Structure formats: structure tokens, C-alpha cells
Amino acid sequence: MRFAVRRRDSSKWAAILLFLPPALLLFSIFVVLPAGEAGWYSAFNWNGFGRPTRWIGLDNYRFVLDNRAFGVAIGNNLKVIAVSLLVQLPLAMTLAIILAERFRGAVALRMLFFLPYILAEIATGLMFSFIYDGNYGLLATIYGWFGAEAPHLLASPATAMPAILVVIVWKYFGFHMMLFIAALQGLDRGVIEAARIDGATGWQLQRHVVIPLLSPTIRLSVFFSVVGSLQLFDLIMPLTRGGPADSSHTIVSFLYTFGVTRMRVGFGSAVGVILFLICVTFAFTYKRWFMRDE
Amino acid sequence: MSKARLDGTVAFKALFLCAAVLFVATPLLATVLGGFKSLGELRTNPFGLPHSWEWHNYADILFSSRYWTLLGNSLAIALLTVALTLITGSMAAFVFAHLRFFGSEMLFAYITAGLLFPAATAILPLFIKVRDLGLLDSYFGIVLPQVAFGLAMSILLLRRFFRDLPPELLEAAVVDGCSYIGFFGHITLPLSRPILATVGTIVFVQSWNAYLVPLVMLNSDRLYPWPLGIMVYQGEFSSEWNLILAFITLTILPTVVLFLFAQKHIVAGLTAGAVKG
Amino acid sequence: MAITRRILLATTTLALSSHIAASADTVVKWLHIEANPAQVKIWEEVARDFEAKNPGVKIEMSFLENEAYKAKAPTLLQSKERPHIIYSWAGGVLKSQVEAGVLEDITAAVGDYKDNLSPGAVAAFNVDGRLYGLPHTVSQVGFMYNKALFAKAGVDGSKIASWDDLLDAVRKLKGASVTPIAVGGADKWPLHFYWTHLAVRIGGKPGFQAALKGENGGFESPVFQRSGELFKQLVDLQPFQTGFLGFKNPDAVGYFGDGKAAMVLAISSFYVTQRTLSASKAGVGDDNIGWFNFPIVSGGKGDPSDTLGGINGWLVTKGAPKEAVGFIKHFISADVQKRLAAGNYIIPTYKGAESGLGSEFMRNIAHNIAASKYHQNFYDQDLGPNVGRVVNDATAEIAGGTMTPMQAAKAIQDAFRQGN
Description:
The complex is a heterotrimer.
Chain A: H1 2-41, E1 44-45, E2 54-55, H2 59-66, H3 68-100, H4 106-118, H5 121-131, H6 138-145, H7 160-185, H8 189-197, H9 202-213, H10 215-231, H11 236-239, H12 251-260, H13 265-290
Antiparallel strand pairs in A: 1-2
Chain B: H1 3-34, H2 39-44, H3 55-62, H4 65-98, H5 104-112, H6 123-132, H7 139-164, H8 167-175, H9 180-191, H10 193-209, H11 212-217, H12 226-236, H13 241-261, H14 263-275
Helix pairs in contact in B: 1-13, 3-13, 4-7, 4-10, 7-10, 10-14, 12-13
Chain C: H1 2-21, E1 26-32, H2 37-53, E2 57-63, H3 66-76, E3 85-88, H4 91-99, H5 107-110, H6 119-123, E4 126-127, E5 130-131, E6 133-138, E7 141-146, H7 147-152, H8 163-175, E8 179-182, H9 189-212, H10 222-236, H11 249-257, E9 261-267, H12 270-276, E10 289-292, E11 307-309, E12 311-316, H13 323-331, H14 334-342, E13 347-348, H15 360-371, E14 375-377, H16 379-382, H17 385-400, H18 405-418
Parallel strand pairs in C: 1-2, 8-9, 11-14
Antiparallel strand pairs in C: 3-12, 4-5, 6-12, 6-13, 7-9, 7-10
Helix pairs in contact in C: 9-10, 9-17, 10-18, 11-12, 17-18
């Protein structure tokens, strides 16, 4: 018996020592270390060659916060969140409620609506730069009917960001719809039936019974909208690259444009640290305040 | 409930669905059809069916080595990423699922902290790291960071599945003198095909579509995956939209085909993966 | 003594070519940003020609679009896979690349060959007494205009000499419903030409040098504030095509080539590209295209003959095979320079090659540059990778109305103080 335990013990440690290190090493080298180094590098004015030597303390953070385009980028991230909550979420939920029922074509429609989500952001962005193109696209056609010259939506600081927001809804609402469909299918049919028997009909039923039951999913959907907004980059590049006149940057596209392409490692790292803090703070507070029951 | 009101609701739903279908399908159709048009026709008729089908737009791309190099690179990078994620992720998940030891909880929390922030936050130090390791301009310069940033979610999903496997299996196997490693190889993995497929699909789609990490790590178009390649293509043919649209269509085609064949895993994976994200 | 030297020579050559000896072919990777197919075709022929004359050497060309190249260069240069020959606008960007240690010192390899080229252009590729590249063309920034559209509005391009003349012309063109100016605002640098050329006119060479020394508030000095204010005067007339902030430079140049705008503040090489980028591929014809130098500003300290423009050439990166220098020399040889000049693609740097320029238009440009005593390189390159970009950002913001001239000058000076 003692022998068996020892053997079992050694087999356990063999598994641990063999199985854990690869994942731990990869994760430490490529995730934890760079995240920590971002903090260190952010205290230097460094062009990435050799080793950092010009220590400038917290100046990079000041430069970031002083930069007008960074403020615009934060504002744009907030706009994305707002549109996700005010347009995308209701749209996704309505479609989910309609498509959760079984009828001919429902599954095909679900798939169609989900399709944009799996397309690459780069391809999506390029498609829409065509749609928005003032010479060829949708608007060009519509304006053409009236013999007018179409506006270049992506070319004006006033319209570029709204145009991007439309693409975001197009691309991501299907994902949120699927979340709601999954939740609706997992709902306790009994509760809904009971309400129906009590005389609740149509919208009443949705409003007072189904939507409250969906509230965990709504909180989840909000969570993903925010996290998605904070990572938004791929879609911006083919559409506007953050322009015109730096009006449509997100935090990440700001980081890329002002940090990576100019190889200002310190400055870019400072932006990274700020983004990191926003992400972590958000994740903790949100989970704590809104998702306690999960 | 009166018949009239019922019809009203149905009509509203039908109208709403139609509008949504139009919203989603128009850009997709315009892209596919646009690739069949001449530039002149695209200007006058961007959304209708082509008057004359310019098959050569597509054929020229399909017969170019450029297209296949891009897809080949994307495929190689995605498959390597999936393989490494599944191997390292499932091994670690197995330990976290079945073996308790001093610090195991802490290590698990350590790894799942990876869920909290995206790769973009550390992209510059990551670039420096990959450069110092001499991995710039290699598949592994992209694969390793992708695996590392995907591990947290993969381990979470795999661990949950491994835990839900009947515990009697492990007890019986251990009594029979089977080692943990043997159990992992002979019992856990074969029983976990569904979750491996799901995790594999998510990781594959993410890698296939990825842009930022390859953009920063790769400089040689020999190694470019398709999202980088298509941006170069667009820079080159800046306003020849018909060619660009054909190129877009042909590069998203594999994704759509994969989606049609593996929709179960993709939908389950992306939403389930998200649920516990 | 002679023997030792010969052995030394042999070993150095051996060392230089050691990694080459392994494979039969030496591959020289050449990254260019030329998008004009006609010109690329000639370049390809030049490469094939070089290969024929140098058996065992292969020139491998690759292309990156201008903006993509600038964005990629900093990461590109840190890779082991970096190309051996890269494009350069000289200036502060070159200097920072030298400091980073990613370029090859080619002083010895070039030797006396540089004496064949225009000394001013060669000097631009000289950093601290060492040569890192060779120039193959120079250019001038000025207004290219469409004579027919000018006539329609009753404007005579040859009479535009002062900034006020320009503003008047813009008003008249607008009055005649002609889009006065095309500009590629999405790329930002076409907009920075206005601000920088105004500074060249207002402050002259002393103004720029004072700013570099940080005198009078550096780039916040009255010279640069005035540049911003005058630029704002122009912007306020809304002279640019609709959606100009979304046009990349090639789009805008094509727009001019299509005859949709009366002017473009052009690099002289646009003379050819406005054709290839136009829808008809014919562009604005020789009988219809005009050029006037950037207008002077009353009270400005700059000499009217001062020019703003580029000095473009090729750099050799660290670790490149020695054949890379051989190829650059071949590329900037009399024959090739004459051939490119005859096609009006470049203002050549090879002495005497400018006589072969294929058009009166380009000969005039060559004359302007030759007569200039102060040829200011593009600020976005000259001021280095960071500060230069901020100049672009800030001028685009003036054009977009999101920054005042004061704020723009301050942003640039702040960046300048931070350094590159």
C-alpha cells in the first residue's frame, strides 16, 4: 500500500513537472514579462534600438495625456460602447427573440447574421471602405440618382467615426444575438408558460418575463461590448487608419500609430500601461458589481 | 388574441427580419458581385448583377502564386498555433483539473489573469522580446505570442471539461496502476474530442483573422498571412476596387466554407468560450 | 609589406563574402516604394542588366506602398530579414537610423564614385563624415496647375507670385465653380508642404536654423506661427476638393490628372504620376500643364529662389552583401540616370544627366533646383522620425480645423523638445 501511494505520488509529480512548464513558460515569457516590461520601458525615452538609457520618469504618461488625439481616442472607445449598448444590444436581443422560435428559415437566418462575426476585421473594413467610397459605393449610387456628388464619409472628421460605428454594429450584433439565443433556449419554459396562462401576451410577456430572465446574458453582452471596444484596432486600419486628422483613433490604433510605427517604445508602453489599467480595473469592478451571481 | 393583432405582430417581425437581412447581406453581395465587374461598371452599377461577368478578375488571382502563398502562410501559422495551444493547454488543464498541490490554485489564478488584458497592451515589449529571441520574420514569432495569449481561455475551457468527465474513470485507472500521464493520453484526450475541436476551432479562427501581431512581427512578404497581404494588395491597386473586391471574396471564402462545415463548433466555441471569458 | 596587404585584402573579401560562398547566388534584396508600373519596368530591366553583368548575383525586388513603408521601416530595420537596399529621404530619419546602427557605412565601397554626383545631394547622405547611401533624384515642391481650368476662371498662373495672388486665384476659381486645389490629406505630408514652404519663405534658412537651436521659442517662434496663420487663411477659403482629408496622395494626384482640380501643391515628380494615376492614363497634357514656384510672402526673409524639395536615394543596411553597393552604383550610373531623365521620372543627380530631361517642364525644375542656394528637405523627414510626424499631424489638424496655428506650433515644439 505504501508503495502504491508512493508510486501514485511520483506519477502525480511526474505529470505536474512534465505538463505544467510548457504552458507556464510560454505564458510567462510572452504575456507576463512583456506586460511588466511595458511598465519599465514607459519610464524611458527609447527608440527601441539597443537598451533603454534615457530615463524620463513619468513624462511619457504626461505626453500621452497631453496628446489631443489620445483624448479623442478615449472618446471614440466610449462612443463604441454607447452604440453597442443603445443600438447593438436591443437589435441583437430583438432578433434573438424572433429567431429563437422555430420556423422555416430561422436557423439559416441565424447563420447569416452570425456570419459577419467570423469574417476577419481586415476584410470587413476593406468591404466597407468600398461601400463608403464616394466615387463607387452605396452613397455614391444613391446620390447619383439625384445627380449630386456623394460625401466621402470616411474623409470627414465629422462623419468618419459614425461610419465606423455602423460597421461595428454590422460586424458584432450577430455574436450578441447568438448569446441571447443560447440563453433563451436555456430558459425555463415553465415560467414563460405560467405567465402566458396568467394572461401575459406579446410584448408584455417579453418585457416583464423574458427580458428580466435574460438579465445575466445582458450583463455578459455588455461586458463583451466593453472589452471588444477596448481592443478595437483591426477594423480601424483598413477604414481610416485613425484619420482624418486623427479623428477616429481607438486606444489601440493610437498606440500603434504613435508608438509602434514611430518606434517610440516608451511612449507606446505608457499607452499600453494605461490600457492595461483600464482593462483590469474594468474587469474587476464589473465582475464584482454586476456579475456576482455567476 | 385577435387575428388582426397576430397578423400585425407577424408582419412587424417579417419586416424587421427583412431589414436586418438587407443590412447584413448587401455589403457581402456587393463584394462578391463587385469582383465580377469591370471598373467602369462598378462605378455605374455597384450593387446590381454584373452586365458582363469578368471571370478573369477572379481567375487572375486564383492563378497567381501570391494568393496561394498568403493562404499557405495563414494556414501554417493557424495550424501551428492550434497544435501548440492544444498540446500545452490540455496538459496544463489536466493538471489543474485533477492534481492538487501546494500553489496549484495560485498558478491557476496566475494563468487566468491572461484573460484580463489583450495582447495590444504589451505589443511593443512583445516586439522587443521576439526580436531579442531572434524570432522576427518567422512563423514562431507570431505563433508563440498567439499561443501564450490564447492559453488562459483554452485552459479554462479544457479544465472545465476534464473535470466533468466521470471521476470513477480516474479512480479505476489509478487502481489499475495507470500513471497520470498514461491516463491523460489514453483516457482524457480520446474522451475530450468535442472540447478539443471547439477550442481548436476558436483558436484557428482567431489566428486566421489576426492582424496586429503579424503586422508588428513580420517584414518579409514571403511570410505574410492574408490579412497583411490584402492590405498590401489594396495599397498597390488603390482604386481598382473590382480587383480588391475579388481578392477580398477569395480570402474570406475559406472562412465561410469552414463556417458552413464546422458551424456547430464555431458557434458553440465562440459563444461558450466567450461565456466563460 | 605588399604581400601582407594582399593577404589582408583577401581575408577581408573572404570575410565579407563568407556567407555568400555557401550558396551559388548572392541575393541582393531591394525594397522600393515606386508604384508607377512604367518606372518599375525600367528598374526591373536595370536589375536584370546588372545581373547579366555580374553573374552569380540576383537582385530581388520587393514593393511597399509609400505610407506602409514609413510605418514599417522602424520594425523592418530591426529584423535579420531586412532588405539590403532601402529607400530614403535622408534627413533626420536617416540620422536616427545611423545612430541605431542598422546601416552600413559605404564610404570606402563608394570611393570616388560619389564625385560623379551632385555634391549637395550626396552631402544629404553623409552623417558625421561617413556615407550611408547615394541619392538618385532630387525634386522641388511647387504648384502644378491646369491651364484650361485657370483660363475658365480668368486666372493667369504665370502671374501668381505672392501669397495674396494665390488666395485671389483660389477665390476666382471658386467663383467659377472650379475646385481650386487637390490634396492628399489622409497621408498628411502633402498638407505639411504648405506650412513648411511658408516657413521657408517667411524665415528663410536662418529661421529654420534658429528653430533647430531652440532660439525665439524654436518652432513656436513668430516665423512658424505666421506660417500657420497664412496656411489657415488658405484653409478658410475651403480651397480643397470635397473629402480631401480622406484622399491619399495618389488619389489626389489622380484627381488633378483627371482635370477635376485646378492645382496641386506637387512634388515635381507628380508631373509623370498625374498621368499614370488619372483615369484615362493620359492626365493633364503638356500643352495644358503649368508650374509656378511657391508664392513669396511679403516681408519674408527667405530668398525667392529658395526651394523646398526632396533628396531621395538608397541606403545599404547592415550586413548587406557588398554587391548591394555595386548595384546602387549601377542604378545611379550615367546611362540609367539619362534613361530615367529622358522619361521625366527623375531630376537626376548624376552630373550632366539633366541635359537629357525629356520635357521643358522638368528642365525648368532642374534649373530651379540648380539655382537654389537653400534647398530645404521635407520637414517630416528632416526633423526625424518623431518630430517630423508631429509636423504632419499638426498641419493636418490645422487643415481639419481641429487645431489653431498656435496649438500646432506648440505641439511641434513640444515634440521637438522631447526629441526623436
